[in-house]
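Hi L.,

You mentioned the student needs an example of a multi-chain input paired with its predicted structure. This one should do, with 1520 residues in total across all chains.
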Amino acid sequence: MSDELAAVFATPDVIRALDDDALVAAMLSVESALGAACGAAGLIPAAAAAEIEERCASVEISPAELAAGALAHATPVVPLLERLRAAVSPPHREYLHFGATSQDILDTAGCLLAARALELVLADLAATADALAQLASAHAGTVQMGRTLLQQARPTTFGLVCAGWLAALDGARADLLDVRERLAVQLGGPVGTREEYGPAGAVVAADMARRLGLADPGMPWHTDRQRIGALAGAAQLVGGALGSIARTVALLASTEIGEVAEAQPGGSSAMPHKRNPARATLVLACVHQLAGPAGTLLAGLAVEEQRSAGVWQAELPALRHLLRLLAGAAAHARALVTGLRVDTARMRDNLGSVVPSQILLDSAQALVDAALAAHPGGAP
Amino acid sequence: MSDELAAVFATPDVIRALDDDALVAAMLSVESALGAACGAAGLIPAAAAAEIEERCASVEISPAELAAGALAHATPVVPLLERLRAAVSPPHREYLHFGATSQDILDTAGCLLAARALELVLADLAATADALAQLASAHAGTVQMGRTLLQQARPTTFGLVCAGWLAALDGARADLLDVRERLAVQLGGPVGTREEYGPAGAVVAADMARRLGLADPGMPWHTDRQRIGALAGAAQLVGGALGSIARTVALLASTEIGEVAEAQPGGSSAMPHKRNPARATLVLACVHQLAGPAGTLLAGLAVEEQRSAGVWQAELPALRHLLRLLAGAAAHARALVTGLRVDTARMRDNLGSVVPSQILLDSAQALVDAALAAHPGGAP
Amino acid sequence: MSDELAAVFATPDVIRALDDDALVAAMLSVESALGAACGAAGLIPAAAAAEIEERCASVEISPAELAAGALAHATPVVPLLERLRAAVSPPHREYLHFGATSQDILDTAGCLLAARALELVLADLAATADALAQLASAHAGTVQMGRTLLQQARPTTFGLVCAGWLAALDGARADLLDVRERLAVQLGGPVGTREEYGPAGAVVAADMARRLGLADPGMPWHTDRQRIGALAGAAQLVGGALGSIARTVALLASTEIGEVAEAQPGGSSAMPHKRNPARATLVLACVHQLAGPAGTLLAGLAVEEQRSAGVWQAELPALRHLLRLLAGAAAHARALVTGLRVDTARMRDNLGSVVPSQILLDSAQALVDAALAAHPGGAP
Amino acid sequence: MSDELAAVFATPDVIRALDDDALVAAMLSVESALGAACGAAGLIPAAAAAEIEERCASVEISPAELAAGALAHATPVVPLLERLRAAVSPPHREYLHFGATSQDILDTAGCLLAARALELVLADLAATADALAQLASAHAGTVQMGRTLLQQARPTTFGLVCAGWLAALDGARADLLDVRERLAVQLGGPVGTREEYGPAGAVVAADMARRLGLADPGMPWHTDRQRIGALAGAAQLVGGALGSIARTVALLASTEIGEVAEAQPGGSSAMPHKRNPARATLVLACVHQLAGPAGTLLAGLAVEEQRSAGVWQAELPALRHLLRLLAGAAAHARALVTGLRVDTARMRDNLGSVVPSQILLDSAQALVDAALAAHPGGAP
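Structure written out for the whole complex:
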């Protein structure tokens, strides 16, 4: 699939972090960590564990090799194991994938991908928030006409507007960080009992979590998709925070208002004079799409018996889609906010005859100070 | 509107807690708390504050009186104030709704309604979780065939199944409690600057929060809908936890499996022998509908300028709809779980020739113990 | 439930057409038509059919009486029949609800409600479209600045803008009319075989369809929810057509552009000078909510076996919600469009130094003429 | 992006038909047809038209070359034209993209992609429907227990069940064919006036439509996204029809019911005995995801002014996503249905002591005959 243009609604980095090569690598990391943890717990021979770790690190499996098997079995883990078994020497082969089920591998690998993607997202969000903090600080006293229902209402300050965006974004970032920390190892075995690990089950799960940098869930979560649903919710909260900024910037950048402009507006194929709010548009395009995969994930929380048929299998593609869009929104928002041009003269002009009071300035400054004080990045 | 039958997808209590009478009462409570807080802060005369509080407590305003004005102005606050102004004596009249905007009143009233509805929901969820804890404890050693992709797989225990439901529900309850605690007073004035309150803005907001039992948001949140979005997300997490139970119970209660039954199965208009899983069906019907209002709320997070046109106005009806459905799901789930009949003989029969190991029993017991230890209600 | 304020997102007429009283009346109409058709086909005695028809017309059943039974059985048909049976004399009682299942009654009643609601909607849409045709005709030559990505681009005419709205709305109306005509009688019996009617099944269904003014579906559609899904899709198409108008009107009515205004702008509780685009806001608020119930209906198309547990039961409340919102959007759009004030001087001013060409005028006129020629209501 | 595994939720053919190479090729086809039509209409020199056609056919542009420009301008048309202009000789260069805007090219190219994808989908659906017709015919008299709310109810026949699926699928196919035929050329110029083409506008659009095998829309549809919304709705109707089949097959294939089986059930990584309903699972996984992009498209119908910022740009990625999932669902359903194994002995066993009547058989046969008579593929 040639989909370079789709990168417009994502970023090259996040696409790499989430593509099939990354998924195969993550699945191998999980099999490796499982082998190592089972070796450490004495469930499998140390030599077997060592060979499994070594092979998982060195085997080269291309996603294309797995496609036919993934189709036949509705999971890529079955063909992955076929390939991996062939790479491990016969005496140790039986210890591969010890006690695990496909979902253990795929859920854990999905969390690994998500954790890496969220790192990228969180970095862009932190930079965006810091830039908002700077704008809030610099423009705490820049009076601007406030508008409600698209009508001029009463004056505010542009710094206070930015402080409001900052508060919302900082809140959403905290939620996203929280769900990042819930991303967990999955270890349940065929029906989630951990029977295969006997009394060592909890130890193996905890050891895998440590090795992979994920949380120890305490219980298998084959049918408890709360952490995935919480991620979907948090992604939409971030999307809302970024979308408010982009929507407002696009309006304030309109020809008739003209109070802000993008650093590098987009051009038009037909109208050389156009200065399109390209970054704001791309943020909105990403955010508008977020509800799709988020809805798929949230509608998929109610699952049946010990492994759902159809709903769970839809989760990983929806999760990757969600994370790509989220990364796209975050990256475009960062570019938008860090490069924003503020036309203070136009803001003054648009006030017309309205004269802002000192009380307004003091009140706005107090709220800006409150938002900056709460900002994890510190005041600029 | 005669909509008694809609109560099937809600509860009578939550319907009362969220209906228009409750909304009018909540708006009056907000105007009262605003008046009291402004009086305490010295922004308005103490006598005015006292009369406002008294009138808000005694005035009788029927929702029907507000309908025409709500239509004309796209907000019920304008006609509410017309009625309320008429009830306050002329010298004090001007101090009503001091410095506030419609959205201040409606957002705070919405949070009051939500807080009351969530109390009802949380009580039903606590009872459901406690009943799950009892089932988990009682059936920790009741072996049952595990099923994945609707195929018999390997044995588990029914207690472990219940422990998994409990862990998911306890997680979702914690999230819901967290969003309940974020429900906040709104105080921003026309464009969110609090200019009208001068240096007393933060004090007035904090005082109102104390009087109304809501959180002090620190900043106006006219365009920061994160707390509403977080509620929508948490509601879906609860829905997912309950939906997993209901979906599985409906399957386990199927004629061919027959391992559980509802305490009072539903009848059929055509087939006297039918034992329909009526409560499970109603849980699923409520949960299936939750994505509608939740999606409306989450898609409405990106708002423009100082007050959005169209998206914000859709929030309150969606919020009430969401809470009704959530309460319906919780109440039906409570009835379902507290009355569940477990047919252990049938569970044994369905195992066929499969003999469960002691290791399975130990492993399941350990996981059940972990879930019970984490259960806020304590082990039964 | 006191929900008068919810009428803002609906209309009083459609609320009446869809409330529980209307649902009970519709269910009685269906039982009556079923009795009459079975009598005419010789399946039940003529005297029984006559008494059933008479009793269904005269019995008074309040929705509140059905609520407890609806809850116990997850369908209101079971308690309705209990009440109705008591009203029919013993020898004829057994012929009531002849061969039918709850879903037969409820699906048909739902289609009756939908058909009545769509009549109201289609009338408002026709009036809106006619008003757009008049605006298109009157302003075919009123030059206005075109705007893309919120930037001034090149001139168009306001009449052409209206013609574009008209074309979209006329297309959506045609789709809505089409789904209205698909609304059908349901007759399948317990599992959709029509066994109970023997060779007369098709005749009974066709006769019921004729008596009730609905389509004859040819086959039972217990598990074929296509017609409901198509209605959900068509409602969103209408919503999109109306939403484009409202969103654009709100922007064009903004203080800085000021090219159009509502006939009766809304007021503000805090700012006497505000002229809020109240009707556009209400259209957008209704349209924004439409995706909720529409998504519920569309996600509910995949149903299992001979009657789904949970998804089907969610259909009727979602359908009623959808139709209320659709009616609200249509009514507000009608008020918005029929009362729209066009400020041609401001449109001219906003062109600045741009001089429109005669070719533009001719081109716009040709497109306006094309839209008017295709408009079912005829050119104004 | 390496995404071979995503093919599990699509098909290799549809991925190729919708990838970036296909998009670039489609954009070049549109520029070519535009040049040819403008040449034929005398708007540009014949030699320029000829060179444009020739260059569009021979130029090689890789999607990767366009990515940076697509990002900068929020549309790939701007960089495509830069590349294309360089390939056309200076005297003819100015006639490229004559009078058009980016959206004209991208909307038309999107319709070309959709038309090709729908051909693939419709072929799989036709084969699925024909296989259902054969099953309906072959099993019209195969008695099976009917099940409602997952409880055994009354007997039906498996042929009638298949006939019900056929009727729903044939209806959905008709809707999908209808929206395929609405896919249209876009030609509006910068703000949708066709001013640039003068009196020849309608002729150029009709000629392009003929050359590209798309419909002539009559009017520019920059802000009338009805045809895209209708496609989203129809895709979900198809998804519902296929999902009902898959959900029911998965249940009937469950260990305890065992009445049908897939031709090639999937295996498990942990349980060699498992016979997973892999194809049914994949159908459900595709269908479950459909609501995401369909919702994005339907929520994007309400657009502002002459070109929307954010919502329109999200349309093409959502459209491609939708079509991939739809093709995946259709291909998996075809494999599922054409290979379905029916265990008539088990169906008989599951009836227990229930003895089906001749009237049931006659009634079922009559309904099967009705569905087969209405089937466009003819009775088998």
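You could point out the following to them. The radius of gyration of chain A is 25 Å. Chain A touches chain D through 75 residues (CB under 8 Å).

Best wishes,
N.
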